[in-house]
Structure formats: structure tokens, C-alpha cells
Amino acid sequence: MAAMASFYLKNPGPLSHSFTKPTKTHFAPPLKLRLRHGPASKTRYPTRISASLINPDGGKLIELFVEKSEKDSKTEKALELPKIKLSKIDLQWVHVLSEGWASPLKGFMRESEFLQTLHFNSLRLDNGSVVNMSVPIVLAIDDAQKGRVGSSTSVALVDDEDKVVAILSDIEIYKHNKEERIARTWGTTAPGLPYVEEAISRAGNWLIGGDLEVLEPIKYNDGLDHFRLSPAQLRNEFEKRNADAVFAFQLRNPVHNGHALLMTDTRRRLLEMGYKNPVLLLHPLGGYTKADDVPLIWRMRQHEKVLEDGVLDPETTVVSIFPSPMHYAGPTEVQWHAKARINAGANFYIVGRDPAGMSHPLEKRDLYDADHGKKVLSMAPGLERLNILPFKVAAYDLTQSKMAFFDPSRPQDFLFISGTKMRTLAKNKENPPDGFMCPGGWKVLVEYYDSLNLVENAKMPEPVPA
Questions:
Q1: Is 455 left (phi over 0), alpha (psi -120 to 50) or beta?
Q2: pLDDT class of 465 with cuts at 50, 70, 90
């Protein structure tokens, strides 16, 4: 559900933060973009606006790649170290850390950072300033792996083919208290939490933290790597477009015209506030999602159609993939989603009903209060520089035959199409009301459920990346 009510400007301009490099913590500190979000543009942007992007947390974007000149020697060193095999989700976290989404972290969390995250949803830097950090970014190992590490101060991280991905140095191993981690991150230990079952329940009883050195950028070779722009690449793109404001919108579902209404209305309001060229970061989550979510490749195809059909303006929209895994941890996780976008240059963040939420795994109700996400964001430690844009509900207006902001004075005129209803229509190849979703986008969604049915009937393989 989507649409925006009103928002206020916390900080009209960028803030400078001093930054002191510590010793034993993680706090320290392009290419030609291929953006497939519409036909090539010949539009000339106006004269450069006298404004700069919001500073990253800690004052500097932390990228954790080894220098090209050191890659061979680091690789040779890694081959002599104890090895820890990364799961698919672990590799996604390496991706997140390496590009600076979690700045100013320099690697997987050591115990002090883990505890601060669990208990305060923030990290205190050596200079006394506070940055938000609400979800633990940790690497679990089991007893056997711990034994193999022994007294070594560094380990090599390898993928499922035993290829060296990174080195973790100056390591610290500490107890993985799973119950505490789950309870404080999700607010419940009820069975059935998707991320918990996928990444925590069967994980080892130890956590290993340290400084991360990644040998080369993480690639997935799924046909979507050109969409995976790092914070540095996004900042370059925003500067190239002369953006004087960046507003971010995260989705893990297909885009319908209610979402588009929200995003275009947000830009209109920013223009009314005096910004000259606000740019939208349409930023679907691309890491782990639960089994019944629409897979990333299909969502990206649908997002492309939304831009091709002109529902969103390619000139003022940047489509990129956010590589983080999804926790479904509600008000706790939405802080992470907002914080990461600061590092990408966004100074406005759109938040809706029950962000990062899900149904209770055992009971027929939402796991979190639908309004708590936006309330928490408005007062979360370390997010003071970010302007939060809450939105009200959009629904299908029967009198206008299009998506519109809900008017409580005439509720009988509005039709609410839930995600479940949308999926049911698509599965049955039925059309939604005219104006609910662009035809191209709806066609992609129908094709996904049609292919899913065929896969389940063993009549065709999984879809091949475009």
C-alpha cells in the first residue's frame, strides 16, 4: 500500500562529520554505468546545482577491496590460511561490507560491535559520534571450523567452489548466543522466522569478526550485475545528473501504479520545497528473500517495463539493486535499510505501512505494529540527518478508474487490492482494474506465475536470465 501524507525537512543541507581512525575496531574508512532503465537519453541537464550529497556515516565511504597491485600477493597469502566456507547469505554480507553499505564498518562484527548493535541499534565511534546499526552483520562458524582456525590471526573466506573471496584479519572469535540475537532482532523467538531458519538456526555456535579485505567485486553472473551499483557508483550517477536531493524507495515486490503515484508525488513536493532536481533511487532489495516472494530477476524485468511504459520518468529515476539479505524484522530492520541509503547519498527515505514486516509465523496477525516502522525511523539514533517521508494509503479510485490517495470521506469509492489478491489475479491470468499496473508490468507478473506453474509441473526449467 502506498501514498504519502506529509513530511518535514530535518536537515536541508549536508552535514560534515569529523572522523578519527581507531586502532582495534572496524571504524575507519568506477566505471561506465550501464543503466537499463529506458531508452538512451539525449536530454541535457541544467547548470550544476550548488549542493552536495549527504556525507556517508563516519564521514567517509568505506570500501574494502584490496588494491589491484596487491591482489596476487594477497591471494597467495590466503592460500596458506585456514579456510572458512561462506554460505550464499554470508557472501551477500561480504558484498554489502565490501562496497561500503555498512560504513563505517570494516568487516564482520567483533563482539563489542555485535553487542552495541543488539542492545542499542547503533555504534559509537572513537570520536564520540553515533551511527545507526540495527542488524548484526556477523559470520558464524562451528566447533570444527573454530578448531581449524586455532591460533591463526587471519582466515581465508571461500565460496562454495573453494575460490578465495576475501581475507579476514586480526580476528576475534566469540560465542554465538542465538536466542539473544533472535529475540533482540525480531522481538520473538517463535519458530518459522524465514531468515532465522535459513541463516541462524543451523549456523555454528561461534561468531568470527575481523577486518575484511575482498579480492575483487562480488559478481553473481545472473544477468543483473549491471544493476548492482555500489554506493560510490550511485553517488557518481547522482552527481552526473546534478541531483540536489535524492529520495530512496525500497521494494521487494512488483511496482504498481500506487507506488508510482507515491514516488512522483514525492518529487513534486520536493520541487515545491525549492529543490531543483530531486532524483529517485528506486532500490529493490536483491539479497535473500523468503520463498513466496517474487524472485529478483522477475521483479527487475517488471521494474524495467514500468520505466519503459513511462509510469516513472527515466530521466529522474535511477534503478539499482540493494544487495542486502532480507530479515523481515520490521522496525529493527527498517533502520538498516534507511542507514544504508545514507551511504549511497540519499537524504530522503520513503517509508510505508509495516516496513520490513511480515505475518506472525504462528498467529493470524502482523508480527509488528504497522505504524511502528515510521515512528522508530523518526527518532532512531544515528538517523538524525535523514529526512523520513511517511506515506498514507493509495487505493484504486472507482470514480477515476485509477490509483489515487485514499480519501476517508468517501471510502465506498476505493478498492484495496492486497498483495495476496494481486498474486491470485496474476496466477489466474485475470486482469486487474485498468490503471492499477502498467500493461507491460502486469504481463511480466503473469508470465512469472505462469512459468512457476509450468516449473512445478516439470514442463520447463527455471527462467533463464535476460
A1: alpha
A2: low
